[in-house]
Design brief:
By secondary structure, the protein is of the alpha+beta class. 35% of the residues lie in helices and 22% in strands.
Length: 172
Amino acid sequence: RREAEFGTPKLFRPHRDVRFSADKSPYKTHQGLVVGTPPSLGYYVQISADGLAVGGGFHATSPAQTAAWRAAVDAPGTGGEIARLVAAATAAGAEVRGEQVKTAPRGYAVEHPRIELIRRREFMLIEPLGAPDWLESPAALNEIVQHWRRLTPLLTILEEALGSVPTPTRGR
């Protein structure tokens, strides 16, 4: 039932890619799971020694995805709604994360009212929850689902903006 509402879950591998890292420890210090239908877009949950974190957004896999994100943020209708939803989520404790450029991207004015969002190459809202009382109980799933449902209006906009953007395939 929840898969029909949120999408197919995918557990991230516990191993780190250490090929180009000075830190050669083989395992991640957290375990994450993404749930969604379009590639690189969906809901997220992570557990670590710091506790639980929940959220959602998109991880850019191509410049076309980033361009579609920026166009959605720039558009008067969707951009205003995205800004409103992000402001509400951050007021409730979520953090905006994701790679960004230092200044305004080419084609956008530094004075743009939503330049902080347009600067993002990828976008995630993550709410660190720590270790709430319900974490080790059967209520944990319902609590996580409630957090995801609050993100659904924003992810619906993202799915409309990014869902039709082709993602690159890896050749081997």
